[in-house]
Amino acid sequence: MVQERVFPTFQAATATVTKEEGLWLYEDMVLGRFFEDKCAEMYYRGKMFGFVHLYNGQEAVSTGVIQAMRPGEDYVCSTYRDHVHALSAGVPARNVMAELFGKETGCSKGRGGSMHLFSAEHRMLGGYAFIGEGIPVATGAAFQSKYRREAMGDASSDQVTAAFFGDGTTNNGQFFECLNMAALWKLPILYVVENNKWAIGMAHERATSQPEIYKKASVFGMPGYEVDGMDVLAVRAVAQEAVARARAGEGPTLIECLTYRFRGHSLADPDELRSKAEKEAWFARDPLKKLAAHLLEQNLASQDELKAIEKKIQGVVEEAVTFALESPEPDPKDLYKYVFAEND
Questions:
Q1: Dihedral sign for Cα atoms in the order 210, 142, 261, 133
Q2: In this structure, are residues 163 and 139 in contact, taking their beta carbons and an 8 Å threshold?
Q3: Start and end of every Dehydrogenase E1 component domain (predicted)?
Q4: pLDDT-wise least confident of 9-23, 25-39, 292-306
Q5: What is the pLDDT of residue 8?
Q6: Cα–Cα dist 311/219, whole Å
Q7: Of 13, 164, 260, 337, which is the most buried if we count CB atoms within 10 A?
């Protein structure tokens, strides 16, 4: 059965949201959900190849954190479960879908695929196939922001970085080394743990000596928070505080979001290890349904408005597939292009 925890801070009951903000958060989460559902359809129809890891169920984490930042200005570093992070960061759905199809119009020119989405324009620092790879990259991005501001006198260099990773990654060396460095130098970074309870087929509680990951922050003298990762308003509240601290030069924050993936580890995973009771308990906490209910209860939205958003996003996703299907394949003569830096 699901092991529940007491969430000490940042509950939706204490979080506030305007109508405009609430509808935007809902739209961003719906985009993530509908996009991933379409990816599954395309994969099983043989239109998409390789490893594809979907984000269904975890949308409140991506939306809650990234929309508390400045998308397109602040930096986002992801994992192999990166489609929705890219979408929240502002990478157009058509370019993400084209990348998954291996097309030249993809955000990584068809060279990255599902696990390696990158967009310099949107400050999307990439998805990484091996766990923990992105943490040093994100830490480096945070360092350069601080260095430009303090050592080079660039007052405009106040960007914050968010590094996303899973619970299994927090047992790896990069996690500890980078948190130590970030704390020492007070880097402007959020370390966001998407604790979905499972590292492929290994249950979180069986793999770590301290299951409450947020408590590991205390070793480095940085704030650590546990938050309901199925509640976008709660995630957004803790992220807003962490972003404000980072931008003010007060250093990093570790945020553990308790969430759950609604699909198997990847689309090749039959998902037979998790119990039916566990999955059903988490399905009942669907973050999209939770936000929709909140908006309706607080008279911030009507059913018609929510349905209009869903219809709009369905059109965006369908257009993305059409764009991807009609886009050209990379030219074989460009095989070595983008491998090395090119002089203008």
A1: negative
A2: yes
A3: 28-333
A4: 9-23
A5: 47
A6: 47
A7: 164
Helix (H, G, I), strand (E, B) or coil at 258: strand
Helix 232-247 and helix 19-44, axial crossing angle in degrees, nearest 10: 110
| Number of CB atoms found within 10 A of residue 328's CB | 10
Distance between CA atoms of residues 31 and 104, nearest Å: 23
CA distances from 179 to 135, 182, 218 (A): 9, 5, 11
For 325-341, write each residue's pLDDT tens digit: 999 999 999 988 888 88
Tokens of 97: 């879908």
Q: How many residues does the chain have?
A: 344
Q: Which amino acid is at 138?
A: A
pLDDT surpassing 50 at residue 48: yes
**Which tens digit of pLDDT belongs to each residue from 24-45?**
999 999 999 999 999 999 999 9
Q: Distance of CA 89 to CAs 115, 123, 243, Å? A: 16, 8, 15
- In this structure, what is the dihedral angle of CA atoms 101, 102, 104, 105, given to the nearest 10 degrees? 40
- Residue 112 DSSP symbol: S
Distance CA 162, CA 66 (A): 8
Residue that the structure tokens 């529940």 belong to = 4
Q: What are phi and psi of 199, to 5 degrees?
A: -100, 90
With contact defined as beta carbons under 8 Å apart, do 141 and 98 qualify? no
Is there a contact between 185 and 162 (Cβ–Cβ < 8 Å)? no
Kindly list the distances between the CA atom of residue 208 and the CA atoms of 133, 197, 198, 267, in Å, as whole numbers in the listed order. 19, 11, 12, 26
pTM (2 d.p.): 0.94
